[in-house]
């Protein structure tokens, strides 16, 4: 047990001190960047479905699930992203490897469960160059980095075996930096606009889960989760200066430039998630979820971005799992959990009057470790976001995700000293 705690502590420190570049998408320029967290590996492997409660896996999308835990669980998840970026005239490839979450969750009584964790909530990361064929005309370079991290704590309460509720509080914080450089190749100097934002704020998430046996084998599942609208505080700094432009996105400032300071608030939209499913516990289950977000109230860090609008977003997820025989003693593959799913999302982002949609299909495995309740979960997602039309970018991506879930009993009163 001590070794597990030390491993978790070291990984937690490494995540706090390691600044990740978690995306390569040009769409991360807008708002607070790409929303990175889409559930644990177990849930993502089922298309994002989180309607099922579990005694050994952490479900971070609905805090009511914490009350169903039977073991203290430490889990860490990571993601490898490979994406092909295409326009009407060219294409590029990019890869990223990131830590997705670090979480400790535990039962603290027969009715209560709690969770504490850290995860990268959103990410900004892109490099774009628009070179004019005429060296006497203006060319541009754009790049950005940073994002928003989330530190959260949650509590779940189980009224009985069928019904539970929960809530968590999230502290969001981070820094985002975006740069635009305009230059004429035949002119020695160009102009740089550097925008830096420091963000922080608090939001809440509430949930409830319900399950009931309808036959000797079949159980129905239902879940609700709601996040009310909240504000993020933003301290903005904009610096405009003359630069000497070099290769590989490098530049050397030639003067102090003009700095503008401002403070503002950015709304995080409210979100409502409704889920339902059916299955045989520890054997199989299928479920679906509908996520509705009031994204039309969302905005950008700066008010002078005029090619973007927001509309309310909708996401549909469907998926499930199958375990041939969870208590098999001599056939390992029968104890493996097989997962699959798909999702479709209208992201709510409209650029150049074109809605940005996203869809993906997922597959995954839950691999038991030895004779314990610990496990390794792996999954893969194939998807597409955006379009090559209207001067936009289409992203064809593959995500490979993996998590380690270590389970043990804590707070067990000894019968003998």
Automatic annotation (TrEMBL):
**What keywords are annotated for this sequence in UniProt?**
Cell outer membrane, Membrane, Signal, Transmembrane, Transmembrane beta strand
- Does the record carry Signal as a key word? yes
Q: Which Pfam families does the annotation name? A: Toluene_X
Localization, UniProt = Cell outer membrane
First and last residue of the signal peptide: 1-19
Q: Main subcellular localization, coarse class?
A: membrane
UniProt topology in membrane: Multi-pass membrane protein
> Which family does this protein fall into?
Belongs to the OmpP1/FadL family.
Full protein name: Outer membrane protein transport protein
State the species of origin: Flavobacterium azooxidireducens
Mind giving the lineage of the organism this protein is from? Bacteria, Pseudomonadati, Bacteroidota, Flavobacteriia, Flavobacteriales
